[in-house]
Amino acid sequence: MTFSPSAPLGAAPPDTPLAVPFKGSGRRRRRSRFHSVSRVAILVVVLGYLVLPLVAMLEFSTRGDYGSRSLDSFAAIFSYPDLIDGITTSLGIAVLTVFGMLILLVPTMIWTVVRVPRMRRVVEFLCLLPLAIPAIVIVVGIAPIYQFMGQHLGTIGGSPLTLALINIILVLPFAYRAIDAGLRGVDVATLADAARSLGAGWPRAILQVIFPNIRSGVLAASVLAVALVLGEYTISSLLSFNTLQVVIYGLGKRDAYVSVAVSLAALVFAFVLLIIITRFAPGARSRAQSGAEEEPAT
Amino acid sequence: MTATNQHAGVGVQFHDLHRWYGRVHALDGLSIDIAPGELVALLGPSGCGKTTALRALGGLDELDGGTILVDGKDITNVPASRRGMGIVFQAYSLFPNMTTIDNVGYGLRLRGVGKDERRKRAGAMLELVGLSKQADRYPFQMSGGQQQRVALARALAIEPTVLLLDEPLSALDAKVRRQLREEIRRIQIAVGTTTLFVTHDQEEALALGDRVGVMSAGRLEQIAPPAELYDRPATAFVAEFVGLTNRLKGVAADGTVEVLGVRVPLLEGSAGPGPVTALVRPESVKLAPEDGAAARVLAVSFLGSLGRVQVRLPDGDLVVAQVEAADVSGFTAGTAVRVSVVPAPIFAVAG
């Protein structure tokens, strides 16, 4: 199965409180009531659509004997070595993908903004390309390379961790968007100029000045990358690597309960990761307050 | 005052600088000599190359030709990070992730100055710009004027060889701009750092510069002390760009020009002999109410310390005259006035 990283975002509550006491004419009040009712209805439908499968998974994976509830299926996760391997493999791929993506994308994008702004369009186009190419096409195209690596590069070449290479490409469109949003929030070119004039070379300017100010964008890109890797099935399966999703699918045929338990656990893991990262990210501080305070007389 | 005139400024020489942006010749053989400790203001319309010249000196933009000497040494190929120049930018450039004191101390941190010493020196710089109380604030908690002061403190903290100010005031509102302008001048004189100030605001340039260089299309039109630039423009461009000017018909002959019936000496470089357009400052135009005079007042504006009166001449031309504030009430729309000019040397262009 695959899951959508946007699920918890889509479930955000509406921005207006529902039970606002309205004043005004009866007609307006009636209309407001209609609005708030429809708002609740939409919220319920959307939440139901997103949450119902999760609730169903929870219900299914906690079924015990004779209608009782038990966590046996979750406990059983650890009795399948394949599963543990799959989890560690997928996490390993996720980590490598995040680092690879950041090393590839962050300096490139900063350099593009600061030094060659006219290439911004080109970089964006290249990064969005993977969205337009179906996974199956990528696999067919890239399979010979993996075959070559498996035959000639020893254990490293045959390791499932090499999937990170392909995942880096797959996450580019999402990571690009997230980092681009971060870069647009600050005047990167001027900050870099200022840092350089103060004595920082390019690496320091990027690391100490630009990077901290696009951190929220970078974190968002990383979360998306992890979520995508944990959900990726097609390519791993077609290239015959036992990642988490592939193992879960195989297990589903033998022990559906454990399979669903692992899926749910993976989902919860991604949610928790998302929450942790959004909590510790600095968030979008308002920088548009200049001029709000008056100049003190000196 | 905490900073003292401990390091005298160094001289800066631009020699035949060239820079192309595509087909635009942003710098077209620019040469300037800046004396040690001097504040030179580069003035010009947008796109004249003044910011390009500043960025070239700061090492932020490459040159296509020419050399830059600082203290006699060729620094043309030295990277920005090793030039040790303090730059204040037009856009707010404080690092949003650092507090004020960390911003000011960043250059010192890169130079390996220890934490306590850094805080002390950065604190002294903040005191110099009057923001000691804001030391632990973040940039987004400060007004635009405060941010630019911190940027100035940050640029000065590294004891720069040269201070570069790239339109640092243009994002601020008028009152703060004037106040900060005077503060910049005070601080620059106190620290004695050679300074290049770039602006498109002529009032700012004239008020701040020891000398003002007027640029147009990548070239230096004239560089001179403010009063000289204003009173004796060397080219038509300078005459028209700096200050307000009336364009009046005149006839030039023998180094003089006859304008509004007055014979006035011409500045060197003027057009002539024959019919010319004389460029006359509003303060050189004299008005006297006189019944039966052919010129008519069109409009009067009172500007506090002075007034400006718009007059239509008999031939239909418009002329603006500057009058004392006390005399403004003597003019109303429709008043018949006699118009003449003060016989101070003026510039004339062809046509």
The amount of helix of chain A comes to over 70%
Give the terminus-to-terminus CA distance of chain A: 66 Å
What number of domains of chain A? 2
Task: Using the coordinates shown, work out and report the CATH topology of the largest domain in chain B.
Answer: Rossmann fold
| Elements of chain A, N to C (H/E) | HHHHHHHHHHHHHH
User: Which chain pair shows the most residues in contact?
Assistant: A-B, 30 and 45 residues
Beta-strand fraction estimate of chain A: under 5%
Strand order of the largest sheet of chain B: 6-7-8-3-9-10
Question: What sort of overall outline of chain B do the alpha carbons produce when their principal axes are compared?
Answer: globular
The outline of chain A comes out as globular
Q: In terms of per-residue confidence, which ranges of chain B show pLDDT below 50 for 5 or more consecutive residues?
A: 1-6
H and E order of chain B: EEEHEEEHHHEHEHEEHHEEEEEEEEEE
Instruction: Please give the oligomerization state of what you see.
Output: heterodimer
Query: What is the level-2 CATH architecture name of the largest domain in chain B?
Result: 3-Layer(aba) Sandwich
Radius of gyration of chain A: 24 Å
What CATH architecture of the largest domain in chain A do you see?
A: Orthogonal Bundle
Radius of gyration of chain B: 24 Å
Helix content of chain B: 10-25%
CATH topology-level name of the largest domain in chain A:
MetI-like fold
Low-confidence spans of chain A: 1-22, 283-298
Keywords:
heterodimer; A: 298 residues; MetI-like fold; B: alpha+beta; Rossmann fold; OB fold (Dihydrolipoamide Acetyltransferase, E2P); six-stranded mixed sheet
